[in-house]
Amino acid sequence: MSSQFIDLNAPSLQGGLPKLPKDLPHGLIAPPERVRELIEKERAKHAPEVFARHEERLMNEWTLQYYFDYLGHEVLYRITPQGPEVLAVGFEEIFARTNGYDPEAMQGLKTWTPA
Amino acid sequence: MNRLEVPVSRQVLFATGDVKLWVEMDLLLKDDAGRWRKRSFRVDTGSEITTFPAYDAKRLGLPMPRQVSRGATHAQTGLEVRSGVLRFRIDGMDQTVYVVPCLFLGNPDAPPDPARPATRPRKLLQPFHLLDWLRFTLDKNPAVGLLYGELVVEKR
Known about the structure:
The structure holds two protein chains of two kinds. Helix content of chain A is 35%, strand content 12%. Chain A is an alpha+beta fold. Chain A has one domain. The radius of gyration of chain A is 15 Å and the shape is globular. Chain A starts with 26 loop residues before the first strand and ends with a strand. Chain B is globular, with a radius of gyration of 17 Å. Chain B is built from one helix and eleven strands, in the order ββββββαβββββ. In chain B, the strands form three sheets. Chain B has a six-stranded mixed sheet with strand order 6-8-7-4-5-9. A three-stranded antiparallel sheet of chain B has the order 1-11-10, with no helix packed on it. At the A-B interface, helix 1, helix 2 and helix 3 of A face strand 2, strand 3, strand 5 and helix 1 of B.
């Protein structure tokens, strides 16, 4: 298996385990300040026009990582300019929401997988 | 389509600020009833064989051996193993169905323990088993304007 780093400073890991899907954020999630800081740091490494094209997606994905990484739950979400809109967390919620991961029911949506 | 360009995914390591990179592909898995189920796999040449959680496979109705493979466990997680195959199409490409060997990991009747995320079985696609039909190329073309590059998948 590919190498895997455990980030003990990950915000998602603070407060102990387990964290169950029902207890995790749902709905529209605004990017936290820490994520905005890291986005600004990353911006400096890339051409402005290239970074601008990917900034929204990066902001959405890193926000999900902030809240969900290392917890073992996939997230079904929609990308928005304000941050990810979380529609379902974990296998069972996604299964129910998408009629068993039916590709048609997942159109326009994305799944985020934790490390 | 005979060609797919998959952007490299990225996450930040909060402890150091480093960016972690990998590639995920969406596969349409064929279940027992001939329906398709969309799941994302990490493309992983370091995984010696494709892996998939046994619990997910059972819930999705994917064909999977009933009997555990005796004498083999998954070293990273200690999970039980079922040796089977995965049938799938690649989302975004043509209708070709591929079949690769797959180890189904864990207990098909119990979801992974949320208190032990390190033992969670992962969806890893070992691409070497597909080289008779597909070519995989890692690239970063400045004209495309991707932040971290891409994996190009082409039919032979």
